[in-house]
Design a protein that fits this description.
Blueprint (H helix, E strand, L loop, with lengths): L1 H22 L6 H16 L22 H14 L2 H21 L7 H14 L9 H4 L1 H11 L6 H17 L4 H13 L3 H13 L7 H11 L5 H6 L9 H6 L2 H20 L3 H16 L4 H5 L1
């Protein structure tokens, strides 16, 4: 117990350091401000945005704002506190993410040192991203929570309901919500029970409870595979392969090391036929991160 407490204290200190470092940096992410602007329009109109009023290309084109749930809080927070709100929001989500991370590693393993080192490695490797308010990164809280719920024992009807609620929130907060289904599917494959199967079905159904209906799912599919958004995937650097020189220069060595270690562990698990579904999911995330550098953080965390 003293060893676990010491490692938990070290993780807390590291978390505090990364939050302080983030708080000293200026808020320069334009995505935060246009999400707040769209939220301000939603508060004024009472309806979710369906036209991108801030597009310089075609503002009349039908629009699906997959981060719409962030809009109103961002607008209200920016109006009340200015850009400092985004620092406060990122601090809260990073604190929750750190707590979930410690709970799923240090607090869940028989080997305190191994669990503690794993938690510390993730905190160090992804320190630049965890305290950011952008939905891409702050929604990692939902991914970490889904992992804890999906593999918990015992898994009953309350757990299934909680998984469905997480899916509902995730599908209205960010377009990465299909990752939640993949996590649940891995849990069903490894620990098949009726409540887990029901959780997966309920989570898919809950994702339909969004203002855009199936339009949201079509958007996510288009981002992943469709030609409609090919210009975005070709011109936005985050969608480029990881081996692009710009990414190798901007992505920390620690983050690349964690993702590389994840690939090695996943391949080892597949070779030993242990935790096959989880290993397959981890390896799929690594491949996705290599093909599209923006997913390095999701794969590693």
């Amino acid at each position: 117990m003293p060893r676990r407490n010491a490692l938990a204290g070290l993780a807390s200190a590291l978390h505090a350091a990364l939050v302080i470092a983030a708080a000293r940096a200026p808020v320069g992410d334009p995505d935060l401000f246009w999400i707040a602007a769209a939220g301000r329009d939603r508060l004024a109109s009472g309806a979710v945005p369906r036209q991108n009023l801030y597009s310089f290309v075609d503002g009349d084109h039908p629009w699906v704002m997959h981060e719409w749930l962030y809009g109103a809080p961002f607008a209200a927070g920016l109006g009340a506190l200015g850009p400092a709100f985004f620092l406060a929001f990122g601090t809260v989500t990073a604190t929750i993410a750190t707590a979930l991370l410690v709970r799923s590693t240090l607090a869940s393993t028989r080997h305190a040192i191994a669990g503690g080192l794993l938690a510390l490695a993730v905190l160090v490797a992804f320190a630049p991203w965890l305290p950011l308010a952008r939905p891409t990164w702050s929604s990692l809280v939902l991914a970490l929570a889904m992992v804890l719920v999906a593999f918990r024992e015992p898994f009953g009807h309350r757990s299934a309901a909680l998984a469905a609620l997480l899916s509902l929130a995730w599908s209205n907060a960010h377009g990465s919500f299909p990752l939640g289904w993949a996590i649940l599917a891995a849990a069903v494959a490894e620990r098949p029970t009726r409540p887990r199967a029901a959780a997966l079905a309920l989570s898919i159904a809950a994702s339909l409870l969004n203002p855009y209906g199936l339009g949201l799912h079509r958007l996510v599919l288009a981002y992943a595979t469709g030609d409609e958004l090919r210009p975005v995937r070709e011109r936005v650097l985050e969608y480029a392969p990881l081996w692009r020189a710009e990414h190798l220069a901007s992505t920390s060595f620690a983050a690349l090391a964690v993702v590389g270690l994840l690939a090695i562990v996943a391949l080892g698990s597949l070779a030993r036929r242990r935790h096959v579904a989880r290993a397959a999911l981890a390896l799929a995330l690594v491949i996705e991160a290599v093909l599209h550098a923006r997913h390095v953080v999701h794969a590693g965390v």
